[in-house]
Specification:
two-stranded antiparallel sheet; 9 strands; 5 helices; globular; 23% strand; seven-stranded mixed sheet; 188 residues
């Protein structure tokens, strides 16, 4: 199986205003079943947050790209545009990468794809307690499945995440999104 990382610039433009919190973003998870576009949405969010928009000043974003799907690095050089304030740790385990970024790169936002293991979840908690924001993805088919995820149920109780973006396929394969707050109340 060969996956080709590709960009779809602008796909996160409508989502980003829902993630804005004062001068930063809410801790956010982008959710969907496999193949619906989580990584593509994450990639564009990273680019927009790094470059800044008319409503959000550009941020220093640290990306842990464990499987080289976000930046599509080739010999250490990202082939996808993640913005000029973005540092990428390529082919680095997520948990280790989050800790390395916190210690050495002073990111304002850490972005990670496909959170799931116990180590990932512990590193997310460490990151959240260091004043850094998290933007991540996770496999979930329906919003109700969030409570079934072992570590996410604990995060929900502690209200670590304030935004959830659920991606789904609409008519003709067009992607659509729904936004939920930390208590799983639908916002749009």
């Amino acid at each position: 199986n060969i996956r080709v990382a590709r960009q779809k610039k602008g796909c996160a433009k409508e989502v980003l205003p829902w993630l804005k919190c004062e001068n930063s973003i809410y801790n956010t998870l982008i959710l969907s079943a496999p193949g619906v576009g989580k990584t593509t949405m994450l990639r564009d969010c990273i680019r927009l947050l790094s470059e800044g928009t008319s409503k959000i000043k550009g941020k220093k974003v640290g990306v842990v790209d464990e499987r080289s799907e976000i930046a599509a690095s080739f010999f250490g050089i990202p082939q996808n545009d993640l913005g000029y304030r973005t540092d990428v740790l390529d082919a680095c385990p997520k948990a280790e990468g989050m800790r390395l970024l916190l210690r050495s790169m002073s990111p304002q936002i850490i972005a990670v794809d496909e959170l799931g293991s116990k180590e990932d979840c512990l590193a997310v908690e460490e990151t959240l307690h260091c004043g850094c924001r998290i933007l991540g993805t996770m496999h979930v088919g329906k919003i109700e499945e969030l409570k079934e995820k072992m570590y996410l149920s604990q995060w929900m109780e502690k209200e670590f995440f304030e935004r959830f973006v659920l991606l789904s396929l609409g008519e003709g394969g067009k992607r659509k999104f729904s936004i939920y707050d930390g208590k799983l109340q639908r916002l749009c």
